[in-house]
């Protein structure tokens, strides 16, 4: 790994002056941030990036990242910040092209940690084949931030016509889940709370654009795509069914959950259906295309455990039910906030 | 997963449901004590597998739900103090006090931290010698040993900036109160497996004898609960009323003597108030004289505030098993998890929350299973 080019001996921590718009701000951007993301559009050093749209229909999305701790098993805030927006654009059926990056740094944040985060963002952006073409950096006083916050926004070219959207979901469609759920939420909780697990559980944080492209390239008619982030699988499907005014039944026994995630959830009284993911998505497709869609998704490493987990019907609008492992039914509802571990 | 999957086996569950149908000849009302059991019943739709003759009443065994509103207000008052860290189990944070909850107190600047064990709170006290650290010690017999151990260690290691705000409840006195109440409908109990893992079965024998009720110590998985119901119904049909242990894999007859010892060392039995039910004689645990220095209530001379419950909240009737959550006029209307009127709508172990989360539209949940 390259070493940090910034004169750390002079400034091992971010100071207010790095956000003041003067020479130290310029130094931070010129010597630390810009060289990492260097590309012709960024290097124009304009107030924004100017480019010719590479396609007729564009998708545009934004995502802010405040994760704590910033380095966690399976990723870091930089990796997450690129994956977050790339995945949101991919869920619009688009191939992401350009990103913007906004940093809010807290006074006292170690410059070396910023360097590590930048390197991680660069690697992830390269993997996603996206360019970071514009950005911004602000510094807030110590105590008014949590080290580092990152916002990313981006545009991508829509690759399927019509693009997937909740309103396109139809009764009879099947729901395909790309792999096991709950790893990001539990890995973060374990890292944050110092839970000692027998195995190291890693976040599933990953770029989903290629897995989505494998579906598009296979010519699958994509009715809806959704990456399952905060709120987990449950919140994702409830939101879609709410917008689509349709009903869905999920077969619990078909939803893959790793042994570690299940164990931690059992101990703490958490429900993996509501636990966060950062590298999983659902695809809602016509039943006639289910085999082809499964085959396409399984051909990609991030989809090799893809399964059909449920079916859409014209029942109660917004109703999502789960067929439990013992054959009964329960209803999934939105949680009012974060899941809280129970007493006993 | 071992000890989970075999107790969620669909075929075995159906076999027990069939066995219950086979032996039942008339209506019986059973009460599961523990909120964890209520949650499992609703989550897995177990009551939909039972014959119409068997009614499950949901008991008062949710520690969050029975913590008096005055104590929540005291915890909030502590959280609002300068240089004081209030540590709590997660599901206490959203329980409404008379005007705020702990989550709002945190948002307003209070230092409220979620911990998984009272020993984590003790560690925070050690690491922050310039702050006072209070652990909100809520729970039944199950959490009492760990809370007792935290106080015991604080005293022995002289961690003087640590104290607990205690709200410990005991199950057997509450069962007796329910059984003595006018109009009681409960004819048999599924006793709380985790409580009995600590306390053993001893104290349930006199209750079974005096009130002529079968008491089956029961676990938390679908198969546990259906086996508990089966054993309880079998006793009722045969006119028997003894203590039986369905949860043998976790509950030894004598319980956990080491855990009981540390509880006896630190706590004594006191009279306490149960939210929604009122005061019950000898139904709680308070710190003994020699550990009073660690009692946050006394250390900070907290004012006892007479707090008002919402008149629309029927949580008392629900905690006594007199009505089901969806029979409360406020359920799902003025009372939701976002705006709970009472604690049972907050905790994941609360009966109202379990009903709301898993069967918002219908009750009971329709079963597709044909036992």
TrEMBL record, chain A:
It holds the Pfam family AIRS_C. It comes from the Bacteria. Gene3D superfamilies: PurM-like C-terminal domain, PurM-like, N-terminal domain. GO terms for biological process: protein maturation. InterPro entries: HypE (IPR011854), PurM-like_C_dom (IPR010918), PurM-like_C_sf (IPR036676), PurM-like_N (IPR016188), PurM-like_N_sf (IPR036921). CDD domains: HypE. Residues 49-158 form the PurM-like N-terminal domain. Residues 170-316 form the PurM-like C-terminal domain. This is Hydrogenase expression/formation protein HypE. It comes from Pelagicoccus mobilis.
UniProtKB/TrEMBL annotation, chain B:
The keyword Iron applies. GO terms for molecular function: 4 iron, 4 sulfur cluster binding; carbon monoxide binding; iron ion binding. The keyword Iron applies. InterPro entries: Hyd_form_HypD (IPR002780), HypD_1 (IPR042243), HypD_2_sf (IPR042244). It holds the Pfam family HypD. Keywords: Iron, Metal-binding. Gene3D superfamilies: 6.10.20.100, HypD, alpha/beta domain 2. GO terms for biological process: protein maturation. Belongs to the HypD family. This is Hydrogenase formation protein HypD. It comes from Pelagicoccus mobilis.
């Amino acid at each position: 790994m390259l070493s940090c080019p910034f004169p750390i001996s002079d400034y091992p921590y971010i100071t207010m002056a790095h956000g003041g718009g003067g020479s130290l701000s310029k130094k931070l951007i010129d010597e630390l941030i810009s060289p990492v993301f260097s590309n012709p559009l960024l290097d124009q050093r304009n107030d924004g990036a100017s480019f010719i749209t590479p396609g007729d229909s564009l998708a545009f999305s934004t995502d802010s990242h405040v994760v704590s701790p910033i380095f966690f098993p399976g990723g870091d805030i930089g990796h997450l910040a690129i994956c977050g927006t790339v995945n949101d654009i991919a869920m619009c059926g688009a191939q992401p092209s350009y990103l913007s990056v906004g940093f809010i740094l807290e006074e006292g944040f170690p410059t070396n940690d910023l360097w590590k985060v930048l390197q991680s963002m660069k690697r992830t952006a390269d993997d996603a084949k996206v360019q970071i073409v514009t950005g911004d950096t602000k510094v807030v006083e110590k105590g008014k931030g949590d080290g580092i916050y990152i916002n990313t926004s981006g545009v991508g070219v829509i690759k399927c016509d019509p693009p997937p959207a909740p309103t396109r979901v139809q009764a009879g469609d099947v729901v395909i889940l790309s792999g096991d759920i709950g790893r990001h939420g539990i890995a973060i909780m374990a890292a944050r709370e110092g839970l000692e697990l027998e195995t190291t559980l890693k976040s599933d944080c990953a770029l989903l654009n290629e897995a989505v492209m494998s579906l598009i390239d296979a010519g699958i008619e994509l009715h809806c795509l959704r990456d399952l982030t905060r709120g987990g699988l449950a919140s994702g499907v409830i939101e879609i069914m709410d917008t689509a005014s349709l009903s869905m039944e999920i077969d619990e026994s078909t939803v893959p959950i790793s042994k570690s995630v299940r164990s931690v959830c059992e101990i703490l009284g958490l429900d993996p259906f509501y636990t966060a993911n950062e590298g999983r998505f659902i695809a809602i497709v016509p039943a006639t295309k289910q085999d082809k869609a499964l085959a396409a998704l399984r051909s990609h490493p991030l989809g090799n455990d893809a399964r059909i987990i449920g079916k859409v019907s014209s029942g109660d609008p917004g109703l999502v039910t789960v067929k439990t492992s013992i054959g009964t039914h329960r209803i999934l509802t939105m949680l009012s906030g974060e899941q809280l571990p129970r007493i006993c | 997963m071992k000890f989970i999957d075999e107790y969620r086996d669909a075929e075995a569950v159906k076999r027990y449901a069939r066995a219950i149908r086979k032996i039942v000849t008339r209506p019986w009302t059973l009460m599961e004590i523990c909120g964890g059991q209520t949650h499992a019943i609703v989550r897995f739709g177990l009551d939909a597998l039972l014959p119409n003759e068997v009614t499950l009443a949901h008991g008062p065994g949710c520690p969050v739900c029975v913590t008096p509103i005055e104590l929540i207000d005291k915890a909030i008052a502590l959280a609002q103090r300068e240089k004081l860290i209030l540590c709590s189990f997660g599901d206490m944070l959203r329980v409404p006090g008379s005007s705020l909850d702990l989550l709002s107190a945190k948002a307003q600047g209070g230092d409220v931290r979620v911990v998984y064990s009272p020993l984590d709170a003790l560690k925070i006290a050690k690491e922050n010698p310039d702050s006072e650290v209070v652990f909100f010690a809520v729970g039944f017999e199950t959490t009492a040993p760990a809370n007792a151990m935290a106080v015991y260690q604080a005293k022995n290691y002289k961690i003087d900036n640590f104290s607990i705000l205690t709200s410990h409840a005991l199950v057997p006195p509450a069962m007796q109160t329910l059984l003595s109440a006018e109009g009681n409908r409960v004819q048999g109990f599924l006793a709380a497996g985790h409580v009995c893992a600590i306390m053993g079965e001893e104290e349930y024998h006199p209750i079974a004898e005096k009130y002529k009720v079968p008491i089956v110590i029961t676990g938390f998985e679908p198969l546990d609960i259906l086996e508990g119901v089966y054993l309880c119904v079998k006793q009722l049909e045969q006119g028997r009323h003894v203590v039986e242990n369905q949860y043998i894999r976790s509950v030894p007859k004598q319980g956990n003597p080491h855990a009981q010892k540390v509880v006896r060392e630190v706590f004594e039995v006191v009279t306490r108030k149960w939210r929604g039910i009122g005061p019950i004689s000898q139904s709680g645990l308070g710190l003994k004289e020699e550990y009073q220095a660690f009692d946050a209530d006394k250390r900070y001379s907290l004012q006892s505030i007479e707090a008002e419950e919402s008149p629309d909240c029927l949580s008392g009737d629900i905690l006594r098993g007199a009505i089901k959550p969806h029979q409360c006029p406020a359920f799902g209307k003025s009372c939701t998890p976002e705006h709970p009127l009472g604690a049972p709508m907050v905790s994941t172990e609360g009966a109202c929350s379990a009903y709301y989360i898993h069967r918002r539209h219908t009750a009971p949940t329709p079963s597709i299973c044909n036992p």
